[in-house]
User: Fold this.
Amino acid sequence: MAFDIEGARRAGYSDAEIADHMAKQSGFNAAGAKQAGYTDADIVQHLTTRATTQPSPQDDRSYARSAAEGVLRSAASVGNTILSPVRAAANYLAPEETTVETLVDGKKRRTGALAPVANYLNEMKDSMDWLDSENASNPMTYGAGRLVGDIAMTAPVGGVIGAGVKAAGTRAGLPVVERLGTAVATGGLRTGAAPTTLSAGAANLGVRAAGGAINGGASAGLIDPDQAGTGALVGAAFPVGMATAVKGLGLAGQAVKKTLQTLAPLNPKNDARLVGQFLRDQAGPDANAAISALKTFQQTGPALPGYQATTAEVARVPSFAALQRTATAVDPLSMNQYSNMATRNQDLLVNQLEDLAGRDGQREFTDAMREETANRLYQQAYSKPIDPAQLTKPMLRQMDGLMQKPAMQEAMRRARVLAQNEGLDIADPAGSLRGMHYAKSELDAMIREAATRNEKRILQGVQSDLLKVMDQLSPEYAGARGQYAAMSVPVNQFQVLEQIAANSITPRGTVTLDKFNRAATDKTAKAVLKRQDATLPSLLTPDQLNTLGGVRSSLEGLDFVANAGRGVGSDTVQKLATANRMPGGSPGAFARLLPGVTGTLGGILSQGANALYGGANRRLQERLTSGLLDPVEALSLLEAAQPAGVPPVMGLLGQVRKQGEKVLPLAYRATPLLLTQ
Assistant:
C-alpha cells in the first residue's frame, strides 16, 4: 500500500521526517542524497515516483543528468581528498560514542563540539557511493562527466606546482629546474627548450617525463590518493610515448594506444579484459568454437553430475590444455587446487562405475530375488497336475518325436542322475513337468559345452522344441519361465557392468580412457552372457548408457588435457616456453617507452615499474588460473575481451586528430586521470 504523504503532512509531519521514514522503508541512502545537494522534498518526490512506477535504472537518469552528476562526483572526490586532514582531526576531537541506540541501528555517532563537522565529512564517501549506484545504468555519460570534472578540478594543480618549481629554478639559477617547472605545468608536453643534439634531446625528454610524472601523480592523487603512483607512471610514460612517434597527429593515437596497452595491467579493472584477450589470442581460430562449447556447458552442466571439468576439457582447445599443464606445474597453489579437483573427479568416476555394477550387495540381492521368485513359481507349476486334455494326439506325436532324439535322451539320462543326487526319483523325466525341467537344465549345460557352432545350434533347436511342449502343457510353467527371464535382465546388466568396472579401474583406484574403451564394448557383453547377439544398447537402460557416455566424455577430456598441445621436446622445456606466454605487463615494455632516459631518473622509474608490474602480473596469472580451472569463469573472461562500445579515450584521440595542437595539452592532462576511474 502506498504511503499517504499528504495525510502525513496534514498530521503535522515535516518533509524531513517523511523523507527519513520512506528512505528507511525502501533502503534508500537519504544521507548521501542530502550530502549531494538534494532537499527533503526532492527525496520524497523521488521515492514516491519510484514506489508507484518502479522505473528501470535506465529511465531513472537522463544522459544529461548523469553527465552533470559525474562532474559533481569529481568535485566530491577532490573535496574528500583535500579535507581528509580536517576529517581526521575532527574524528579525533569528536570520538565515537557507544549507546544502546547505536548498537540497535548500527549507526556511528560522535560527541563533542566538532561532531557535526566530523559527521558531515564522514558522509562524503556515502554521497559518492550513492552517485555511483544511481548512475550505474549510464556508465558512459557518467564516466565522461567524471572525466570532464577531473580535468576541470585538477587543471590548476600542474600550473601551481610548475610555477613554484620554475620560480625556485630561476632564483637558484638552474635552467634545468626552470624547464622542469614548465614540464610540470604542461603535463610533460614541453619544457620551453629546443634541443639541437641527440644527447640534449634525450635529457629534455627525461625532464618532460619527470614533469609529466609530477603532474600526473598530483592530479590523480587529488582525485584518488591510491592512484597517485599509477598517475605518476602514466604521466611519465605518456609524453615519452608521444615523443617516440613520428611527428604529426596522425600517429599520436598509436602512441597513446601503445602507452595505455603497456599500462593497462596496472589497473585491476582491466584484468578480465586482458586475461580474456590473452585466452582469445591463444585459442586463435578456435576461439569462437571454444566460446560456443563453454556456453553449452554453462547451460547443461557437466556430463556427469558433480564432475569438475576444466576449461580445456570443455573447450577442447590444445593451447588451453598446454596452458593448464603449465599453470598447474609452475604455481604450487594452482597445483594443489587442480590435484584436489583431479582426485575428486577420479573418485567420482570410480563410484559411478561401481554404482552401475550394483555394489554394496545390490547385485547379489537382485540375483537372490530372481532365484527365490523363480523357484517358488516353478514349485507351484510342478504341484499342479498336467491337464490330460492337453495331451492331444498331435502333442503326443510331437513329444514322442522329441524324446527319440539322441540329444534329448542324453539330457534325460543326465536329468535322472541330477535328480537322484538331489534325492528325487524321476525314472521317466518325460512323464512329469519337473523331469522335463531337469532335462531342460541339462540341455542348458550341453549347449554351453558344445564344441562347435553347429552342435550348439542343433542343441538349441532341441531345447526350443522342448520348451514349446512344456509351455503348452503348463501355462504356470510358461509364466514362471517368463518371470525368470524378466528378472534376469537387471542381473545380466549388473554382471556386464561389473565386468566393465573391473576392467576399467586400475590397481591404483583410477580410471583411464584406454582401459575404459577396451572394457565398455559389445565384446564384454557377449563374453559375460555367452550370447553372440548381446550388445550394450540392447541390454542396458538409457540411464545406464548415459552414465557410461558421461564417464567416456569425462575421460576423453582428461586425456585431451594430458596430451593435447604437446610439441617435440622435453615436457619441462615445453612448460617453460608456455610460461613465457602468460599474460601480464612488462617493466621492459614500460622501459621501452622511455628511450634515452637513464641515470637516476631511469633507475627510479624502473624500480617503480618493477614494483607495480610484479603485483599486477601475480594478479593476472591468478585470474588466468581461475579461468583455466573453471569453464564458467573462462566464458566470462572471453566475453569480456569483446569490445563493448567506444572507450572514452578513443573519443579523446579522435578530437586530438581533428583539433591538432590545440587539443594536445588536454590529452596530456587527461590521460593520467583516465586510470583513476
In short: Residues 447 and 460 are 7 Å apart (CA to CA). DSSP finds 36 helices and two strands in the chain.
